[in-house]
Specification:
Helices cover 20% and strands 20% of the residues. It is α/β, with parallel strands linked by helices. It contains five helices and seven strands; from the N terminus they run H-E-E-H-E-E-E-E-H-E-H-H. Strand 3 and strand 4 form a beta hairpin. The strands form two sheets. Strands 1-2-5-4-3 form a five-stranded mixed beta sheet. The chain has two domains: 119 residues, Beta Polymerase, domain 2; 78 residues, no CATH class. The radius of gyration is 22 Å and the shape is elongated.
Length: 218
Amino acid sequence: MSDEAINALAAAGITATTADTFGPAAIDVPAESWVAAHEVLRDDLGLRFFDFLSASDELTDGFRVVTHLADFWGGSHVDHLLVRTLIPRAEAHLATLSGVYAGANWHERETFEMFGITFEGHPNLIPLLLPDGFEGNPLRKEFVLASRVAKPWPGAKEPGESDHAPKAGAPSRRRTLPPGVPDPDAWGPRPPGSPAPDPWVQCTSGERPSMKTPATIV
C-alpha cells in the first residue's frame, strides 16, 4: 500500500517517502503538502475511511502528526495506511483536514488542546475535552503530571515502581519515579525568591531523573 500511495502522490507532484513502522504501512509527506496529499489518497487511491488524527512529541525534532486511513474492499479485506508529517516545535501549525475528511474536525480539536498544535482553517478550533480555564498542553513532554506526584503510581511493573509491598524473595530495587514526574530538584516546593525551575531542561537533557522519593513533593 505504501508503494501505491507514493506513486499516486508522485503523479500529483507530491514527494513522499516510506516510513519505518511496526504497524500498518506508513508514509511521510511534507507539511506544506498535507492537505493535497490526503486529497490524492482519498480520490485517486480510494482511502475514503478516516480513522483518526493525533500527534507525538518528538522533543527537539518537533511534533509528528499522523492520520490513519483505510479502504474497505468488501469482506475482510482492508487496506490501511498511516500518513505522517513533521512540524517544527517553534511553529506548531498545520493546515486543517476538516474539509477533506469531516471526521478530522474533533480529532484536530483534541490534538490542538493536548499538544498546542494550531490547525489553520479549522472552522471551530476550541477545546474539546479539558475543563474551562485549563492551562497547558498535557501531552507535551515538558508538561508536569502533578497528580502522579500527589498520588502513588498504580502502574507498577517492576519492583520499586510503586508503593506495593514486595513479594517474599523478590529482588530489592531502588524506587523509581513514575512517568511524567520530574526530578524533585527541578520541580516542587522551593524557598521564597528562588528562580522558577524549567522542567523542559530535563526533557531535553536525556538524563535519568533523580531516584528521590516522590512523596517528598507536594
